[in-house]
Each structure stands twice: as structure tokens, then as C-alpha cells.
Amino acid sequence: MSRDGAVPGSASLQLVAGTVLLRPQEQVADAMLDGWRNQQLARNLAFSTIEGRLNAVRTFSRHADAHPWEWTSKMVDDRLGDLRAVRHLKTVDSAQLR
Known about the structure:
Blueprint: H1 11-14, H2 24-42, H3 47-64, H4 73-87
């Protein structure tokens, strides 16, 4: 944690103070994912692991047509149900979410 109380990877460190966002929800979601990516890099995770996770989140966001803070457990259940019904998956990993 820095002296001002900001946690590494937090949105306040990803977004420039005082700027006006043209597409605030999309830009905040992108900044959240960038921060999450940086946190995973700091944990020394493999690039392929990080990219797979990011792709899974982006794919789910498109499927749900909602930003992460709008997601509900029903949306996740619906998506996993679709994957099981359409692709006949018994278990789902991030590569199969695409």
C-alpha cells in the first residue's frame, strides 16, 4: 500500500485524476482488468494463464451484455448452463468459455 492509501492495481492508480471519460463504464471496466492483470503479473503467473483469465472475463461480459459490477449469479448460471447444453461440457475451464 502506498503512503496515500492506494492499493497497487486499484482503479485510482489506473485512471488519470481529473480526466473526463468518454465511455466511463467501458473505460472503468478496462482499467479494472488492467489492474487485475498487473496484480497477476506481480504474482509471477504465466502470461498464458493471465490472458486466458482475461479472455474468459471479456467473453462472459459480452455474453452477459453487462459490466462486472452488474453481474449476477443468475447470469453466471445461465452462461454455464448454455455451455453445458450447447457444448455438452461437464466441467468448464477458461479456455472453453470463449
